[in-house]
Amino acid sequence: GVLVDVGAHPVTGRRRQKSKSGFATKKEAEGALREFIRLVEGGADPCPERIRLGEFLVRWLGYQRARGVRSLTLETYEGYIRREIAPVIGGLEIATIRPGHVRSVLARMQKRGLSAATIAQARGVLGSALRQAVEEGLIPTNPVTAVKRPRIRRRELHWPTPEQLTTLLHASMGTMWEIPLLLSMVTGARRSEILGLAWQDVDLRSATIRICRGVQRMSGRDPAGPITFTALKTKRARRVIQLPAFALERIRTYRREQLERRTLLGARWQDPLDEERAPVALVCERGDGFFLHSDSFTHAFKRYARLAGLHPSSRLHDVRHAVATE
Questions:
Q1: Could you give the C-alpha distances from 200 to 212, 251, 255, 284, in angstroms and in order?
Q2: pTM exceeding 0.85
């Protein structure tokens, strides 16, 4: 066996020793000793904290939350951990995790018929968590890097034509979804950006809008959970977009219609509040000034897309690649 004095504990000051036995030959033991000394000299903790993977993943989620990762993203991470990773290897000590354990997680997902994209996302979550474990000195290397990412078959794209988008607009005319759909088609903005657009971001004189915020559902699995404004992910995401003439004309008319509704509702009108508790007048709202729900927007698109004859696999995101012209 190998017995090495690894120095004093950083807190108690007591001397620590690390041992390992079970080597088939003296040469194998000496090789293990050299590797161990290399790790220690490289700054690794010779006696890393013993912690089970499941416990570490909970800690990792806390780190992500402290970093400001969005609540919906955290929910996604937590879902992969709870459903896919923890039931298979969550009880193992983090230092014992090997590539074979990672493959067992992915194989279980594949056996259940989950898509390659979903399996790749679970692998990514585990890989990101264990990368932090490496940075903390809990493990010398990340076992996920030795496991190949599943090959993802690209989805066949069926982008709607300008004619189809015009038909879709006509189908939604007069509903609460007409303006959100119109803005999606002519700006290429994301769903959350459209639903977070405020009148203060719209310049009807220059026919421009500024994309400077989004919306998101707060934590919790309730699809009708509370919604709040959220900052865009990057500075580059903040941008100014020129509106075509036909869209500007319709938005001007819609602005007058909305102001009439606001007057009629009076105190029942409820502008959402920003992070400084100031009211924000939304462009796209549910009829009383408050947020439209993002999932409802997606469902509405699917409904009108069927009426307009779009391909069944068409997504709201796909309208960013086509422009309605009239």
A1: 11, 14, 12, 13
A2: no
